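Regression test case RT-17, inverse folding.

Input:
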């Protein structure tokens, strides 16, 4: 029986064709693998470059030490978190103005922590976390340290400082008033000696708000609180070294601020169309000083030089009393009424103009010690005394020459911190 002829199936490969096709596929796979590898390497290099750039620009600066306090180091990341806490999203200009104060607060808080350890005052992490939660604050290290320092101060106050403060101490019963000039004080002494009432005169004339509101009666006060109550340190020593029942002589106080000043003004020119005036001015603390300065000007002394020497207006040492062109709404009503009064002559030095809406410092105290004795310290005064004790302790702690504090904050770091905060 004859054999059937076997036909070759279409689409089938010969061994040689198959071998050639397999080699071609292999080459393609190699080429693709090489391409993928090259792409991977290039991509990896790009990513590595980007990461390296990010590390150099963004991450590495955060690890730089900004301040070192007795070998304890604080880096830029910590500093930025502290800045954010204290500035609360303010403008870059405001943030920049607080760089040094925030750096100082980091130093202060670390010194508090170190000193508290010496005094066996410790705040646990749990106490800090509870306080952070109560105040809804972030749980980062900088804010935790700020809160810890605050809690440590409270603990030191209760356990270390308050037991040292006596419940009772010598106190003086005081009457006082603050007057603008020596001549006024001398006049008031004469009126008091003639029988007028101290309380009534203090209520009418005192330029200190506390003594005016209380008609001169400061009540019983222990040593150490008057500076805080009256915003001046001048009166304290005299009160506790003066005789009982004796009216004082005028006591000058150049520290004490008051809402009263006297202007000497000269209008050089007015522009009626724009309601502007070119003004020179000197601001004095009393009518007595103003009259004296006016006499010197009329005797030929230079206005600019007297403004430099005498004026209490901020910037007078730079502008020499030349206020430039002023509008009606750029000055107090008292000054505006004078400057834009059609009857005010140009180039003439004014009489002293009393202005109760401006601030100056300096004046004279009159006081009298009505009584003296050992009295229990009031709660209000204990708080004032305790605040002063802690304030003095902090000043001493921060100013201790044994502390080793190094600041590394340079211009580049400052710019980085402001940008990130």
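Golden output:
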């Amino acid at each position: 029986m004859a054999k059937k002829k076997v036909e070759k199936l279409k689409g089938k490969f010969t061994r040689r064709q198959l071998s050639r096709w397999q080699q071609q596929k292999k080459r393609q796979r190699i080429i693709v693998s090489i391409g993928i590898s090259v792409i991977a390497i290039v991509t990896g290099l790009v990513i590595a470059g980007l990461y390296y750039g990010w590390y150099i620009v963004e991450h590495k600066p955060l690890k730089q030490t900004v301040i070192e306090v007795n070998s304890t180091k604080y880096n830029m990341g910590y500093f930025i978190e502290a800045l954010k806490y204290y500035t609360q999203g303010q403008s870059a200009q405001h943030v920049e103005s607080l760089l040094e104060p925030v750096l100082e607060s980091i130093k202060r808080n670390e010194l508090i922590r170190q000193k508290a350890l010496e005094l066996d005052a410790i705040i646990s992490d749990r106490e800090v976390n509870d306080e952070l939660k109560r105040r809804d604050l972030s749980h980062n290290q900088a804010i935790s340290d700020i809160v810890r320092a605050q809690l440590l101060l409270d603990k030191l106050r209760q356990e270390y400082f308050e037991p040292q403060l006596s419940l009772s101490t010598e106190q003086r019963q005081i009457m006082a008033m603050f007057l603008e000039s020596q001549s006024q004080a001398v006049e008031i002494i004469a009126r008091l000696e003639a029988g007028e009432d101290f309380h009534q005169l203090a209520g009418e004339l005192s330029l200190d708000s506390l003594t005016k509101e209380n008609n001169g009666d400061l009540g019983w006060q222990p040593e150490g609180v008057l500076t805080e109550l009256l915003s001046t340190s001048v009166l304290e020593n005299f009160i506790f070294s003066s005789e009982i029942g004796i009216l004082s002589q005028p006591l000058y106080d150049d520290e004490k601020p008051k809402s009263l000043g006297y202007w000497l003004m000269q209008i050089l020119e007015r522009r009626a169309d724009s309601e502007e005036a070119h003004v020179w001015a000197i601001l004095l603390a009393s009518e007595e000083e103003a009259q004296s300065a006016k006499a010197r000007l009329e005797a030929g002394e230079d206005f600019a030089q007297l403004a430099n020497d005498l004026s209490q207006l901020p910037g007078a040492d730079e502008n020499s009393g030349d206020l430039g062109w002023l509008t009606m709404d750029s000055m107090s009503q008292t000054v505006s009424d004078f400057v834009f009064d059609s009857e005010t002559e140009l180039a003439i030095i004014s009489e002293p103009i009393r202005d109760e809406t401006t601030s100056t410092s300096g004046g004279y105290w009159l006081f009298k010690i009505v009584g003296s004795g050992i009295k229990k310290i009031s709660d209000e005064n204990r708080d004032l005394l305790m605040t002063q004790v802690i304030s003095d302790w902090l000043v001493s702690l921060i100013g201790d020459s044994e502390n080793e504090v190094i600041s590394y904050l340079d211009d580049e770091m400052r710019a980085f911190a402001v940008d990130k905060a």
